[in-house]
Amino acid sequence: MANIQVSTKINGDTYEFLCRPDETLLEVLRDRIGLTGSKEGCASGDCGACSVMLGDRVVSSCLVLGAEVEGQEVNTIEGMADGGNLHPLQRNFIKFAALQCGFCTPGFLVAAKALLDKNPDPTETEIRYWLAGNLCRCTGYDKIVRAVLHTAEEMRGQARG
Amino acid sequence: MKYLAPTTIEGAVRLLSEASGSTRILAGGTDTIVQLNAEQIEPDLIVDIKRIGEIRGITNENGGFRIGAAVSCAEMTEHDGVRDLWPGCVEAAGLIGSTQVQGRATIAGNLCNGSPAADSVPAMVAAGAVVRIIGTDGSRDVAVEKIPVGPGKTSIGADEFVHSIFLPPRPERSGDAYLRFIPRTEMDIAVVGVGINLTMDASGVCTAARVALGAVAETVLLVEEAGDTLIGTHIDDAALDNLARAVSAACKPINDKRGTVEFRTRVAGVLAKRVAKIAAERARG
Amino acid sequence: MADIDRLEKVDGFKVVGTRPNRPDGVDKVTGRARFGADIHAPGMLIGKVLRSPHPHAKILSIDTTRALALSGVKAVLTSDDFGDVPAMHQATLHNVMAHNKALYEGHAIAAVAAVDVAIARKAIKLIDVEYEILPHVTDVDAAMAEDAPLLHEDNFTSGIDPKPSKPSNIATWSEFGHGNLDEGFSQADIILEREFTTEATHQGYIEPHACLATYSEDGNSEIWCTTQGHFLVRDTCAALLDIAVSRLRVTASEIGGGFGGKTVVYLEPLALALSRKAGRPVKMVMSRSEVFRSTGPTSSSSMRVKIGVRKDGRIIAADAHLNYQSGAFGGFIAMLGAMCAYACYSLENVRATANEVLTNRPMQASYRAPGAPIVNFAVESVIDELAVELELDPIEFRLMNAAKEGDRSSYGPVFDQIGLIQTLETARDHPHYQATLAKGQARGMAVGFWFNFGGLTSVSLNVNFDGTVTVSVGRPDIGGSRAAMCQMAAEELGIPYDNVRTIIADTSSLGFNDTTDGSRTTFANGLAIIRAARGAIRDMCARAAKTWDIPEEAVEWVDGCARPCGSNAGDFEPMCIAEIARKSPKTGGPIAGHHEVNAEGAGVSFAVHIADVKVDEETGRTDICRYTVVQDAGKAIHPAYVEGQYQGGAAQGIGWALNEGYVYGDDGIMQNPGFLDYRMPVCSDLPMIEAKIIEIPNKGHPYGVRGVGETSIVPPLATVANAICSATGVRMTQIPMAPPVLLKAIEKNNKQV
After folding, report:
1. B27 and B115: one domain?
2. What is the ipTM score, two decimals?
3. Quick check: pTM over 0.95?
4. Are C686 and A140 inside 8 Å of each other by CB?
5. Interatomic CA distance for residues C594 and B234, integer angstroms
6. Where are the beta strands (DSSP E) in C39-178?
7. Which residue in chain B has the smallest CA separation from C289?
8. For residue C253, what are the domain limits?
């Protein structure tokens, strides 16, 4: 199984890496690039803990081959804060206690940001269905949904202001 | 294992025809990579078709839509034209997996995975969708219901792959719908799926109906007898009861971790009535 | 002078009861926090486990030759690599690596360490195992049958006198209760006797088990792992590998959920043994399938409950018998179930008995209030049915029979100050319970109990030269507990929350700490931190006294400062913590507090849950439309995380009630070892979960804290079942109440009506 050379952009920076043909983007991010913020909870696309942006789509990085991202742009949880400034979702997840163990949190944040980028004014139901692919076993989702609702409101306010 | 991503149809055909071992086509990867990760498959070659420009888009063709094999479900559900013409097919495609899966999964892949529980397939069968297959011998167009031949098995040759799926133009006063039963609200495989596509005349009488069922047999079923129960009726309660009976009678399900024979048979009839109502509503406009 | 043993509640809290940002928050929202699998060591190998494909089989031979010959393979491990261990660790050893027999599908048979994951995977397939397949049993009732295949030929039921003459699959018998049942039932006007079954569930933490072990040539070794208790990992691994406890240092990673499932070792001893053989660090991470097939499920069960009431609504006698399936090795969870069965009720005649039953399933592990939700489903279903028979409001009926202070509990001890009645009254008066039902919906409720625990605890608290404080605790923070630790230290010291940081220290830095389980962390760590802080305060007062040259007794600690008090103390400006700390090199050296204790006095807690549900009677689907948890926290240190515990427990219980469950085929193989078909609630399955905190102080804690983590999973099974019964008229006796099961019951009921 000869390794494949891949060139890609991750969080705005250019990376070149070698990977096995059957190696997933998640494995590449975690084991080759050292970006361990994306988590493996299932390797079957059922938990969302490995969510990243591939181009303008949120995807499960466990269901993307590393070789596929040649020439593409990948954005991970590590690229979500703007330098030292947390994204409003990150800030509000802390404020609203929307995490307990925190393992699913990166995936939720990436997926929630993708939602707000697309729909700045989602209903509770829209949030719940958009995030249905992100499993959280700790919180019962209540505080996560509240944090997303609040962030949307806050960001709309800033956009208007 | 090798991974190759040809940029032309010809390049892909050549790779497939020259391949000696087992080969997998990679479109969205939401089934194939799951199987790879679980070590259920160990192909010698993976051919990623997403870099072939020709199959990456949705094109209007004679009043219908040709959906390239590399078009993701998210792209399909965001396409106003397809959504207006075939809302049932779009809803079915939109039910496949999570938001994360939607950004990658394709209806061509959903079909080629060969699962009897595939959500988009009953809707496409009801719609009379036509699959364009490309291979060494050129291309051929096949009715979608002819593709699955058994669980995990399709009629597509080892040297062939799906180029696109054509959702045909349709008469006025037509409507389609798809519903599935799952225990949760999301993220499950259909325990039963029902797709119905029908057309009415100006007086509200159903003139054509196609009913397709998922997860109740070895492959998705096109049940002509079920469609017949609606034709000539106003899709009233009596017709719906007949539909439910015909649908339940056509079911040949199994007991498994997702449902029982009894449950699937019963719920297929229940869902068929609900789906027919939605489709009729849409046909009436 | 600060009295470190003062236990009365402090009034006028300044930090406790507020909702500050958690100290590990930023790390966790940026992806920076390091969990079990997020670590890498130079020269690291990857370990993988070969697992039994059979539920029950004799291992005739294991040939590792082909695996060892594969280039890149550095070590292969089998049970031969482990020596004899003390009896108390034998089951653990035989669970982490099968010894002669594979006892369940997924049981570890051998392990390899290789230079990368691809080679390790390949090597696993090159290990040749010869099995003799044995008959298996996975059902709890079938396992108790006379002719059932025996898991352990040497298992004679314990807890029975005299010892049984024949071995069986019943590991343990236990019995609790008091009074005279026959007499009680003879006075009853209504007696209901019902049978129930529940299927096994998994804790379902999203982070799979993971560890990195390094065994050094000089005999010192280290483990990094995701665990609820790194001291337990240390002591267990040291025993299994026969190394001195002092030579093994275990560091707990951030932990991605546990719920009881990470109170057991699985990979850690294998990784350490592989590292010892290979001479290189070994990292091991489970797949999701391995997590389901080889770790921690709960019991499945069959139960019989019999309750007698008088017409006036008084429960006069209650009996229960539980059979809990415990997997391949015995445990204690059926016993806990029996203890919890009737703990909510004030009863004169009560008994609960339990069998712990061995089967060819993975060894059960604790799951949040282990044993309690199962029996609660049975008991609270019958209580609900009795309330209907008596035409009483279900909460009023429970209030008429509720346990209260001074009552002898059904499991033995006499209750101290408890909050059951207030919890029930709050639920009764809650807007949810009072609300008119939406069309097509129905309501159910249930009440639940959990003990809560204390246990071995050791903490230290260091006052830095700038007056900030670092607290070291020995229990992993699984749900935000570091914030509560900082709050309690800040409260006691009278300094801002932001001036305290709490870390989870490794096993070489503190005395032994019991695992983060039993809802003990905030209670027991808190108790110790408060006392450690009081120790530091006493020292700081002494330093001030020395500086001022006045008696120590003449100094008091107020709002983070020492100040003179009393008539003869003299007139000095208060000396605050930063100043005392800065001067500490000259007044006696660093200032610190520490406390070591076997914490007793954890207060029991009760919860009432209310659910509004909608049932699709044509498909058997149940939707949860509204859900409320009312629970006694004693004192909520960080209310947001207390609410989070209530909400999380409720969500897990709802999943258990409706769709979660192990599915076994006749072949004894688990059919749904993944999140696709092991159906935990997803975001769109649930409504907001209202969490109502009640605070009836626990006298055993200075601030009144009771444990809050577990009670919340106890009532949901019965709550949902009772709501489904209100909606459909069908009394479900089987968990999960999945659509095929519920639809069948509804249709059967419709035929009868």
Report:
1. yes
2. 0.98
3. yes
4. yes
5. 81
6. 45-51, 57-63, 73-77, 101-102, 108-114, 128-133, 170-178
7. B38
8. 45-134+203-294
